[in-house]
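ok, trying the design again with the full structure, not the truncated one.
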């Protein structure tokens, strides 16, 4: 695997995430505002300065399935640039954020995943997100809320 670094995203570098995902999504402004406010911390997988993957931790999602102060943190916005998938980048990001959540004193980490996203679901299960705490459907389709004890 090439030399890589996982870095914390600073708000002034937000625009560089456009290399990974379509930043015209309606939620993009909300995620940026959370980054600026400190409710969301984003980490970027980089190789030679190029942004190839992104994942975030959210402190307050206003949903006790996802966040409980000082107990449960939410793993959010997990994406790897499509041309770079299958190289282990996602696994590195997940491990990094799980480790950080532990260091911060959290005892649980949650994630939401669409049922049709079998690749992500398989990776989450491999990383220990094995407890289904909610199964439902929204405008995007059927999904799970999964939990991992830290």
């Amino acid at each position: 695997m090439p030399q890589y670094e996982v870095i914390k995203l600073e708000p002034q570098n937000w625009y560089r995430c456009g290399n990974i995902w379509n930043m015209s999504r309606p939620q993009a402004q909300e995620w940026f505002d959370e980054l600026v406010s400190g409710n969301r911390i984003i980490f970027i997988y980089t190789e030679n300065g190029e942004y190839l993957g992104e994942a975030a931790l959210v402190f307050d999602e206003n949903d006790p399935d996802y966040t409980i102060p000082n107990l449960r943190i939410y793993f959010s916005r997990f994406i790897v640039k499509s041309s770079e998938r299958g190289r282990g980048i996602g696994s590195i990001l997940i491990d990094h954020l799980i480790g950080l959540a532990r260091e911060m004193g959290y005892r649980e980490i949650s994630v939401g995943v669409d049922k049709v996203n079998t690749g992500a679901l398989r990776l989450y299960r491999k990383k220990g997100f094995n407890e289904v705490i909610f199964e439902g459907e929204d405008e995007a389709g059927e999904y799970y809320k999964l939990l991992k004890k830290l």
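Keeping the full-length input from now on. Residues 89-103 form the longest helix (15 residues).
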